[in-house]
Amino acid sequence: MAANYTNYVSYKDPATNRPRIGHLNLDHDTIHALSFKSGESIHSLYQVIAAGEEHICLDEFEDPCPASTLKILPPITGRDILAVGKNYFEHAKEFNQSGFDSSDKVDVPSHPVIFTKRATSIIAHGDQIYHHPEFTQSLDYEGEIGVIIGKAGYRVKEENALDHVWGYTIINDVTARERQRDHKQFFIGKSGDTFCPMVCISPRPRNRE
After folding, report:
1. What is the greatest pairwise CA distance in the chain?
2. If 189 and its partner were Cys, which of 98, 103, 179, 181 is the partner (CB 3.0–4.6 Å)?
3. At 205, is the pLDDT very low, low, confident or very high (cuts 50, 70, 90)?
4. Do 144 and 57 share a domain, yes or no?
5. What mean pLDDT, rounded, does the chain reach?
6. Measured between alpha carbons, how far is 104 from 83 in angstroms, rounded to an integer?
7. How does pLDDT run across 12-67, given as a tens digit for each residue?
8. Does Calcium appear among the keywords (predicted)?
9. Are residues 63 and 136 in the same domain?
10. What does the angle CA 168 – CA 174 – CA 177 come to, to the nearest 5 degrees?
C-alpha cells in the first residue's frame, strides 16, 4: 500500500480503549491499524502529519477489522476550526434574505468572513447532534469541505498554498441561527456541543487538477 494513497481513519481500539489510526479499505469496508515502522502504535493524526508518511506502515501484528464493529472517532480533535463564511455566493444570497444575517447586508462580502468553531463542538460522523432546545429554535446545517493544514507558512503565495495542505475531510457546519444573529458574530452560534460532526476519512491529495 502506497502511504500517500491511504484513507486515514481514527477509531477506538477495542483492546486498549484508546484512539488508534488506521487505513480504511473502501472496497472491503475494513480498517487495518497503522503503526510507525519502529513498531510504535499511532494514536493521533497529528502524529502522522508530524512524522511524515514515509515512516508509516500497516501494523503487521494486527488483522483488518470490519469497520462496522469499531467505534469511529473524528479525525481531528483538540483544536478550534477556522472557517470561511459566505464564500459560496448562492448561499450568501440566501442567507442575506433569511432574516438571520446581521453583517453588512450584501450578497457577496467585500472581505473574507472568518470565524471559528470551538474544538468542543467536534464529534464523529454518525454521532448524535444535540439540538440544545433551550439555546436555539433555528438549528441549521451546511456541508463543508474541511482542509487539514500540514505545514506552517508565512505570506504564502497563492500558487504555493496547496503545498501546505495535508489532506481533507467533510464537516457538517451546524449553527444556531438566532444566536448567530443576536450576538452579531458567528462564534457562539457555531460552537455548541456536537455542532461540528466530521467524516472519519482523511484522504490525502492525489491529483490537484
Report:
1. 58
2. 179
3. low
4. no
5. 87
6. 18
7. 999 999 999 999 999 999 999 999 999 999 999 999 999 988 999 999 999 999 99
8. no
9. no
10. 140
* Residue 39, in any domain of the structure: yes
Q: Are 162 and 189 in contact (CB under 8 A)?
A: no
Distance CA 175, CA 142 (A): 8
Report the alpha-carbon distance of residue 202 to residue 75 in Å, rounded: 7
Amino acid at 126: G
Domain end marker among 73, 94, 127: 73
Name the band, by pLDDT with cuts 50, 70 and 90, for residue 125.
very high
On the 0-12 / 13-18 / 19+ scale of CB atoms within 10 A, 181 is middle
Answer whether 123's CB lies under 8 Å from 196's CB. yes
Give the domain extent around 29: 3-73
Q: Which of 123, 28, 21 is nearest to 68 (CA)?
A: 28
Residue 139 lies in a domain: yes
Cα 169 to the chain's mean position, in Å? 5
Number of independent structural domains in the chain: 2
Q: What is the CATH number of the domain that holds 88?
A: 3.90.850.10
Any idea what DSSP says for residue 183?
A: T
Asked whether the beta carbons of 37 and 57 are under 8 A apart, the reply is yes
